[in-house]
Specification:
Layout lengths: L4 E4 L15 H15 L8 E6 L18 E6 L5 H19 L2 E6 L3 H9 L5 E3 L2 H7 L3 E8 L5 E2 L1 E6 L14 E4 L5 H13 L4 H4 L2 E4 L3 H9 L5 E5 H10 L7 E6 L3 E2 L3 E4 L4 H13 L4 H9 L4 E3 L7 H10 L2
Parallel strand pairs: 3-4, 3-5, 9-10, 9-11
Antiparallel strand pairs: 1-2, 2-4, 5-14, 6-14, 6-15, 7-13, 8-11, 8-12
Helix pairs in contact: 3-4, 5-11
């Protein structure tokens, strides 16, 4: 089989903008160090990757007219930095493409909100999104399937600090620096804010400094390199890095794990035909019974995919409601 063909469209570094509470010089310094230190910083502008797994597409995704009978537009929330996201999902996209003889147009956006916008405006067919982002648009998309990891369709937030830090509980972060992932991220923002709220504190004033890293792997690296005192990250991504990139987490100390939340789902746009939707659902549900599919899932640390009800995400909604009071 010929190697997969894919092309990265030119990207640009995306500034921290108004999220970042550091001074201008610290922002510049931190951005440069994190970018070159990890080689995959998530602070990018629009990131589009056109994936031609069946080897026929030669046109730019910016100039061609998409034939919906031949293309599947997939968007992925920035839970990992751009380079890492593509590496993570490449085999899965290859599998889908060759099973259906469809070309995959793979898109990324800097924020979860922008990913959601693509879905509700019918500019994407299918998306891999964060649980926190899902509850924001649950009534405007269709829940397709969810992964089962380590025997559960659930995941946790990990509150982390550097292993040399004297921080041993969440309350110790008061007056310290902290990395969030995204405003809609359940494990990267909402859970951390709930922890602050449980201490009868104001999330906007609790930390001395806070920053949005835009991806969990960058948050982990910022803690590992002591750029910030702590972060709240997706436990699934932490475990993935521990298995495949263990050196990046060897300086990390987990001080707390959250309750279990409904795992990040795969959703589809309401515009997708019911026939294609059922075919995709069947493909995901049977991957673990297929030799090649099982190998891909094993690499992703996924047992299998299952169908669940929307109530899986009720505890995230409950936490979100508490924050709004």
């Amino acid at each position: 089989m010929k190697p997969n063909k894919y092309k990265y469209i030119e990207t640009k570094i995306y500034s921290y903008k108004k999220h970042v509470k550091y001074s201008f010089l610290k922002i510049v310094f931190l951005t440069i160090i994190v970018f070159f230190g990890t080689m995959s910083c998530r602070n990018f502008g629009e990131k589009i990757v056109e994936v031609d797994f069946i080897g026929q597409n030669k046109q730019s995704s910016e100039t061609k007219k998409i034939d919906t009978a031949k293309y599947l537009i997939v968007v992925v929330a920035a839970m990992l930095s751009p380079k890492e996201t593509f590496i993570y999902y490449e085999d899965l996209f290859n599998y889908i493409s060759q099973k259906f003889k469809l070309k995959i147009e793979f898109k990324q956006r800097p924020t979860y909100n922008e990913v959601n916008s693509l879905l509700i405006s019918n500019e994407a067919d299918i998306a891999f999104i964060c649980s926190g982002a899902y509850i924001d648009i649950a009534r405007q998309v269709d829940l397709l399937v969810v992964p089962v990891c380590d025997g559960k369709p659930y995941y946790q937030a990990y509150i982390i600090t550097h292993k040399e830090s004297r921080i041993d509980s969440f309350s110790d972060f008061q007056g310290k620096s902290f990395a969030y992932t995204d405003k809609l991220s359940n494990t990267g923002k909402l859970y951390a804010d709930k922890c602050v709220k449980d201490l009868n504190q104001n999330p906007a004033k609790f930390f001395k400094k806070s920053i949005y890293s835009s991806s969990h792997d960058v948050s982990i690296q910022m803690v590992a390199k002591k750029f910030v005192d702590g972060a709240s990250v997706d436990g699934l991504i932490f475990n993935y890095m521990k298995k495949y990139q263990h050196k990046k987490v060897e300086n990390i100390k987990i001080i707390e794990k959250s309750q279990y939340f409904g795992i990040p789902p795969i959703v589809t746009s309401r515009k997708m035909s019911s026939v294609l939707k059922e075919k995709l659902k069947s493909l995901f549900l049977n991957m673990h019974n297929d030799e090649r599919g099982k190998k891909i899932l094993d690499k992703l640390l996924i047992d299998k995919f299952i169908v669940v009800g929307d109530t899986l995400y009720n505890n995230i909604r409950k936490n979100n409601e508490l924050l709004c009071r």
